[in-house]
Amino acid sequence: MGKRSAWALPYFIFLVFFVVLPLVLIAFYALTDAQGHFTLANMAAFFKEPKIINSFIVSIEVALENTLICIAIGYPVAYILADSSLNKSAVTALLFILPMWINALMRTIATAEIFHALGIGLGKGTLLFGMAYDYLPFMIYPIYTILSKMDKSYAEAAQDLGASPAKVFLKVTLPLSMPGVISGVMMVFLPTVSTFAISEILTNNTIQLFGSVIQEQFYNLMWNQGAALSLVMLILIGLTTLLGGKRQEEIDGGLI
User: Fold this and answer.
1) DSSP for 113-162?
2) CB neighbour class for 127 (10 Å; exposed up to 12, middle 13-18, buried from 19)
């Protein structure tokens, strides 16, 4: 225990049992049939079954719409929070954290009850409202963090050179804040694609997202096909994360 590397042992054990082992099990079930024989039929179901591919397309559509809504609302909020001349109180930022202290499932059920009380029918509109409500803080805070740490001398230099406020924002503030925007997009888009509880509660299960299909497979004890769909989701999330990380490195490199 005198070596520093020994202190990493508990974390290594944790990663093996709670990260590596579950991934290995998912891959094993995805690539085998009920008898344990190797097969690609479970993976092929993603492309062959209309219900599965349609739910995936709907999930991508909802995720894109939700991400755009969160950007449209979250960026101005983050900008105001980060600007000391517009936001005079540190308590304001705390107000956007408070909903996250409540369980997401409880927030979603409460949102559905509000719609019921107002006589609003559940559907795609209520789904997008609930998605934006749940994931908006994940868009605000990465952008807010970048904006609050941004060197104000860049904007001041642009103003000294005669740039208008709009041009300062478009040419200086917006490009410098793009790493926060990309982080926010990844934190909103990826969970939206794989979620299922929010869509089931806020649409009465009339809109099935990809996560709902996966949950349905496991609920019906179709472990192999459910694992295959989960593996497909993991691969897509991994590729998106790699591409997003590469794009962010390019932006960071261009700003240095």
Assistant:
1) HHHHHHTPPPSHHHHHHHHHHHHHHHHHHHHHHHHHHS-HHHHHHHHHTT
2) buried
The angle that helices 223-255 and 41-48 make with each other, rounded to 10 degrees, is: 70
Q: Count the domains in the chain.
A: 1
Question: Are the C-beta atoms of 55 and 213 separated by less than 8 Å?
Answer: yes
- Short-list 120, 119, 110, 123, CA closest to 199: 123
CATH number at residue 106: 1.10.3720.10
Do residues 110 and 121 make contact, with C-beta atoms less than 8 angstroms apart?
no
For residue 227, how far is the Cα from the chain centroid?
Answer: 21
Burial of 51 from C-beta contacts in 10 A (0-12 / 13-18 / 19+): exposed
User: In this structure, which amino acid lies at residue 239?
Assistant: L
Q: Is 7 part of any domain?
A: no
Which residues constitute the domain of residue 91? Answer: 49-255
**Residue 150 domain-assigned (yes or no):** yes
Q: Which residue has the higher pLDDT, 74 or 151?
A: 74
How does pLDDT run across 67-125, given as a tens digit for each residue? 999 999 999 999 988 887 776 666 777 777 787 788 888 889 999 999 999 999 999 99
Cα–Cα distance between 253 and 190 in angstroms, integer?
Answer: 25
Q: What pLDDT is stored for residue 117 in this prediction?
A: 94
- The pTM of this model reads 0.83
Q: Where do we find the tokens 């499932």?
A: 105
**How far is the C-alpha of 252 from the C-alpha of 236, rounded, in Å?**
24
DSSP annotation string for 48-86: H-HHHHHHHHHHHHHHHHHHHHHHHHHHHHHHHHH-TTT
Is 233 within a domain? Answer: yes
Asked whether residue 126 is domain-assigned, the answer is yes
